């Protein structure tokens, strides 16, 4: 019996390091590309094409940003759905299903008729597709993080866990570049009429690449142990809520800062900069595109810090820095200096890289393997509701009624809230989490 077990274990297929890291990176790059092209379009395109022409520009933008928020409401539902599948049948199959859900929804957005063509049905269909995007992303992110961390060698979980996080800046760069290129090679009329559809439809090619890579993966070693010992949980959601509720709450609050700092620096800043600060769309997008390099550069740096000093200490330090950034938010953004606005974007996105890099590792390590997909997905996506879904909308209302300084205080408050949560979360750097079935 012992010999048979040993032979079975020795014959268990393993994933190569390069395939694991590339598969976790390419999937999240595609997912965030799809997500960010919607975020950009929600500010510069959808208010004009999918909402009544009689509506004033501010109201149209708020309605468009409301559809942007729908995906964040859907993400916890997707987290529960795909988390259940991921903790029951495995990480690989669930990752494929999540990618398909996201990809199909994105392509359909590029094919939708506008309000001028079918009336009220247009924004309703747009909201439905946005719902599909949210469901897919709700299951994608956590699966990609687990694919990386559950295949990581000892002492490398934070480093492996930051690879799927790199998909966020890469997806943002691809999304922003696509709109900049289209705006440069075609007239404004052509861009608004049909050119904006190209990024949405072309995402189908990226999805095909992602599916090809992921279908060649084997199950992660950590979850394979769960399968071998028949320790799958019947209803992972129930176990997370009833037995791990404190970690669910703390993990959710801890991740709020990550979302707030990002969406204030990108979606809100783009909207405010092009509507109130006098920047042309292409000019502000170029500034954001260059600043996103800071986002990408600071993610690996955060992983190095998380491996050396611990996930908790690194995250606490970044929360403090984000809280201080909120105090100078308004003075930098409305300084009237393009250089200062650029520094504002670089600072905000650098902080985003520092907080985003280790958050996947933190949220995956605080739950045992048998419910890790559901637990980490729920915490991250619940944080998306509180920290991101209405962040651009809330910030727009605050800035309009009280001034930009109120938006900065909003960021500071969110950072302090996450700081308090991290103070109560245990350090998991030295935990043997893959044997915590």
UniProtKB/TrEMBL annotation:
InterPro entries hit by this protein: MFS, MFS_dom, MFS_sugar_transport-like, MFS_trans_sf, MHS_symport, Sugar_transporter_CS
Membrane protein topology class: Multi-pass membrane protein
Listed GO CC annotations: plasma membrane
Main location group: membrane
Entry keyword Magnesium: no
Domain Major facilitator superfamily (MFS) profile: 20-430
Annotated TM spans: 20-50, 62-82, 94-112, 118-137, 158-182, 194-215, 248-272, 284-306, 313-333, 339-363, 375-395, 407-425
Subcellular location: Cell inner membrane
GO molecular function: transmembrane transporter activity
A Pfam cross-reference name: MFS_1
Keywords: Cell inner membrane, Cell membrane, Membrane, Transmembrane, Transmembrane helix, Transport
Protein name according to UniProt: MFS transporter
Organism: Acinetobacter rudis
Source organism phylogeny: Bacteria, Pseudomonadati, Pseudomonadota, Gammaproteobacteria, Moraxellales
């Amino acid at each position: 019996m012992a010999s048979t077990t040993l032979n079975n274990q020795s014959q268990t297929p393993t994933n190569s390091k390069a395939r694991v890291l590339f598969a976790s990176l390419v999937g999240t790059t595609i997912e965030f590309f799809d997500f960010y092209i919607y975020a950009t379009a929600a500010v510069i395109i959808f208010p004009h094409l999918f909402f009544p022409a009689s509506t004033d520009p501010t109201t149209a933008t708020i309605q468009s940003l409301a559809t942007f928020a729908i995906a964040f409401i859907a993400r916890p539902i997707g987290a529960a759905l795909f988390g259940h599948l991921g903790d029951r049948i495995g990480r690989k199959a669930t990752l494929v299903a999540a990618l398909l859900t996201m990809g199909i929804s994105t392509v359909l957005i590029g094919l939708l008729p506008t309000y001028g063509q079918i009336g009220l049905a247009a924004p309703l269909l747009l909201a439905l597709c946005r719902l599909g995007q949210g469901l897919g992303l709700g299951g994608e992110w956590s699966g990609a993080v687990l694919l990386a961390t559950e295949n990581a060698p000892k002492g490398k979980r934070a480093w492996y866990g930051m690879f799927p996080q790199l998909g966020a800046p890469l997806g943002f760069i691809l999304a922003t570049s696509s709109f900049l290129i289209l705006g440069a090679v075609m007239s404004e009329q052509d861009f608004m009429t049909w050119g904006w559809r190209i990024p949405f439809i072309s995402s189908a090619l990226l999805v095909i690449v992602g599916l090809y890579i992921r279908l060649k993966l084997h199950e992660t070693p950590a979850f394979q142990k769960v399968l071998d010992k028949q320790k799958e949980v019947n209803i992972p959601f129930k176990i997370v809520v009833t037995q791990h509720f404190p970690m669910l709450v703390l993990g959710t609050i801890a991740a709020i800062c990550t979302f707030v700092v990002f969406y204030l620096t990108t979606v809100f800043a783009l909207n405010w900069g092009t509507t109130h600060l006098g920047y042309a769309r292409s000019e502000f997008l170029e500034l954001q595109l260059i600043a996103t390099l800071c986002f990408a550069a600071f993610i690996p740096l955060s992983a190095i810090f998380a491996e050396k000093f611990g996930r908790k200490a690194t995250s606490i330090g970044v929360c403090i820095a984000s809280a201080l950034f909120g105090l100078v938010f308004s003075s930098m953004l409305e300084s009237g200096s393009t250089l200062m606005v650029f520094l504002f974007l670089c600072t905000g996105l650098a902080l985003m890289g520092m907080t985003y890099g280790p958050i996947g590792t933190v949220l995956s390590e605080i739950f045992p393997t048998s419910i890790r997909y559901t637990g980490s997905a729920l915490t991250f996506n619940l944080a998306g509701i509180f920290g991101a879904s209405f962040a651009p909308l809330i910030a727009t209302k605050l800035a309009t009624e009280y001034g930009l300084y109120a938006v900065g205080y909003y960021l500071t408050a969110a950072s302090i809230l996450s700081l308090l949560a991290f103070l109560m979360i245990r350090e998991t750097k030295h935990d043997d989490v893959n044997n915590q079935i």
